[in-house]
Amino acid sequence: MKEQSRTWEKDTAYLNEISDIQDHPFVESLAIFKQHVNGNRLTHSYLVSYYSYRLARKLGWDARACARAGLLHDLFYYYPGDVSFSNGGHLRNHPKIALINARLVTDLTPVEEDIILKHMWLATTALPKYKESYIVTFVDKYVAMYDFIQPSYAKMMAAFKIFLKRLVLPALKLAGTKKSSEKLRLEIENSLQELDNNE
Fold first, then answer.
1. Are 69 and 115 in contact (CB under 8 A)?
2. What is the pLDDT of residue 16?
3. What is the SS3 string spanning the chain?
4. What is the pLDDT of residue 36?
5. Residues 55-66 pLDDT 10s
6. What is the sign of the dihedral through the CA atoms of 59, 61, 63 and 69?
7. CA 52, CA 11: separation in Å to the nearest integer?
8. Which region, left, alpha or beta, applies to residue 122 given φ > 0 means left and ψ of -120 to 50 means alpha?
9. Smallest Cα–Cα separation from 142: which of 79, 52, 14, 56?
């Protein structure tokens, strides 16, 4: 999953499901808020919306509800930690705020309302009522985890490539030109080239 690919922009069936809400100023303004590590809240919402839509469609469930509620699930306009609540914290309260804001954007079905309100299940205790709510909940967690893990993975791979280039390959050259070490050296160089090509 590459955030920059914006694969949802090429899926006309998906775009038809969200056409009446995607250009709403409440939705577009999510782009100014950083979300997790790499992206912004709008991109995060599109990723959750699109992958939830695709999964629901594959399962024969309510893909429209997943697409729409997925796009609106984080419709709040503050940074976690910048706001304090009298009852509970950000994890508990932002779904309620998102639901209030989503109701200002469009009319919501009961399934869409439940998706938005319960998308923090596991961090909150209220069980989702609909199977589509579980899809968005778990896709949201997946996208969030990817946002946190991906930069660490990239750093780890960069360090591994340096290790191979600076230590392993020179050690193989020092070991001589035995056929097995030469073959291993070529395999490592090919692997490094593949890693470079995949970035």
1. yes
2. 96
3. CCHHHCHHHHCHHHHHHHCCCCCCHHHHHHHHCEECCCEEHHHHHHHHHHHHHHHHHHHCCCHHHHHHHHHHCCCCCCCCCCCCCCCCCHHHHHHHHHHHHHHHHCCCCHHHHHHHHHCCECCECCCCCCHHHHHHHHHHHHHHHHHHHHHHHHHHHHHHHHHHHHHHHHHHHHCCCCHHHHHHHHHHHHHHHHHHHHC
4. 57
5. 999 999 999 999
6. negative
7. 14
8. left
9. 52
Q: Which two tokens stand for residue 60?
A: 């024969």
In the structure encoding, which two tokens stand for residue 7, read together? 């694969």
Please tell me the distance from the alpha carbon of residue 42 to that of residue 28, in angstroms, as a whole number.
7
The model's pTM is 0.71
d(CA 180, CA 163): 20
The residue ranges of the chain whose pLDDT is under 70 are: 1-5, 35-38, 79-91, 150-188, 191-192, 194-199
Nearest to 138 by CA among 67, 75, 37, 48: 48
pLDDT of residue 41: 87
User: How long is the chain?
Assistant: 199
Which amino acid does the sequence have at 8? W
Q: Assess contact for 158 and 142: CB atoms under 8 A.
A: no
